[in-house]
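Re-running D-3-phosphoglycerate dehydrogenase to confirm reproducibility after the cluster update. Everything else is unchanged from the original entry.
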Amino acid sequence: MKSYIIIDFDSTFTQVEGLDELARIALKNTPDGKERIAQIQQITHEGMEGKISFADALRERVRLLSAHQNHISELIDFLKTKVSPSIERNKQFFKQFADNVLIISSGFREFIVPIVSEYGIKPENVFANSFLFDENGNIIGYDTSNLLAQNEGKVLQLKALNLEGEVYVIGDGYTDYQMREAGLANRFYAFTENIKRESVTAKADYVLPNLDEFLFIHKLPMQVSYPKHRIKVLLLENVHPKAKAIFEKEGYQVELLKTALNEAELCEAIREVSILGIRSKTNVTAKVLENAEKLIAVGAFCIGTNQIDLKTCMHKGIAVFNAPYSNTRSVVELAIGEMIMLTRRIFEKSNLTHKGIWDKSATNSREIRGKKLGIVGYGNIGSQLSVVAEALGMQVYFYDIVDKLALGNARKCNSLDELLREADFVSLHVDGREENTHLIGEREFGLMKEGVIFLNLARGHIVDIEALVKNLKTGKIAGAAVDVFPYEPKNNEEEFISELRGLPNVILTPHIGGSTEEAQENIGEYVPQKLIDYINTGSTYASVNMPNLQLPAQKDAHRLLHIHKNTAGILAQINQVLASHQINILGQYLKTNEEIGYVITDIDKEYSKDVITALKRIENTIKFRILY
Ligand SMILES: NC(=O)c1ccc[n+]([C@@H]2O[C@H](COP(=O)([O-])OP(=O)(O)OC[C@H]3O[C@@H](n4cnc5c(N)ncnc54)[C@H](O)[C@@H]3O)[C@@H](O)[C@H]2O)c1
Ligand SMILES: O=C(O)[C@H](O)COP(=O)(O)O
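Result of re-run:
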């Protein structure tokens, strides 16, 4: 049975209302133009909402118009630039289904036909009003006998067409819905790509964010591999709003929550999610991942990724990205500031002064200049701190388990013990891997100098808090700054409980080392871009758990992304499938680690569904995606 797709023109095929735009063009230089344009727009709006009769609205708008034939030419040029994006990208669909697509519009043929015919829609399939002109080309009215000039004109027109088969109506207005209400259409799809009218969506069988969705649900050929609005993004822990805006601009559906979720909550929330964005507090455990059937990628909107079960993500073909640099400077600045505050005992003095106590004295107040700073972990933050501290006159010592190049005059220590014995200040900047649990405990504090200043802005579990408290109480440690804790409150409402509370010359901060406007904004831009690149191109460049592949742009090709267990012969099997279907490989990229492999193959456009099925069936396939 034949199916017909009836598409509205104004605010559906194009993003704008044709008659309103014609008024804007025709009236732009007339003295009362502004008021008349506003009046026309108001009447259009009320008509679309079903608040005034269509025939009255049309009569009134054309009366206010004062347009000329030349204005229509100008309007056509403008409308060509305003075709709805999803219509534009699916041009090929209209060409292929020219016999099935009809335009039924209350607009005017004079501007509709030139626009839609460029998409292969036949002029005889366009049903719309037509203007009447005088001999000078002025619009003096319209053909009032046209069915579409009547109230419920679309209903009358569709009835007159007497179509046999399935009829689907796509439109943004109430008059489009009326065809369904009259029993002339099987389904009404409220098209919301340009405008969402509650009175219309409430009546719809289906709300259509764009044409891709219609093509997707009807399994019709489309120009994207998957409608983007079907991609759900869940952002937790109050990540910067820029991230939400970037994902929304890409067309994804985004939910942004202020707090972290616990395991049970996340197990529930993650079911339909394709992209998860978190910070340091959300644990992405194996159990959470069991419930994450649709998850394609995780973005850590921070540096640390120890809160994510990276291995399980890898085994499930879920790529994880983080922001390895965006907040490093913020941490460095805080560490420098805290070293000065602690060595001058500023917080104690400030508190006393607030209480009215004037304690002017230099005892136990020192400069940082010339002192030895021991940096444990010489990565992105440790090495940056080294440069800034040296610029302030400190002598820098560092220790890293990996052989690192010393910056400036920094001195490399051969062991942690050597560093701890030497340093006046010890600052931790190691990553949060499990083996670093209690890296600093009673033994290590024992090795440190009397009166040392100690900083942990890395991860809470790295320090044995009991030992730290004991050494602060004995005075062995003269001051400490702690930003990260073995247990941190889930949100700002939960009380922070720690034995460190109330100790003198101890700066406690609520894990805000990277919490600056600048850092959060940078992260909010950086991470979404990595995730979007992965979704759109398959690029795993800078992923923390997947073999890294950076790819050239995909040109006139379909891209097959195949993640598999790293066993022998997978590439050969992929190529065998392609060869047996006479598919030409335009480019191929492979990267493996010990456990998984990632192959990206660009192929000619032509292929059958069997190819996809065969590729998915290759043994040890973890995940398979197609991009086009
Ligand atoms: N407080 C905050 O808000 C905040 C902000 C950003 C980063 N961080 C944390 O700061 C830490 C450092 O971040 P980064 O970006 O510099 O990480 P990084 O990965 O660039 O550097 C970590 C370095 O530590 C070294 N290392 C690991 N274990 C070690 C050990 N036992 N002994 C010596 N060296 C060891 C690594 O080889 C690496 O060079 C991380 O734990 C990160 O999560 C905290
Ligand atoms: O890993 C990080 O970057 C820091 O610990 C900051 O984490 P946050 O974004 O949760 O503050």
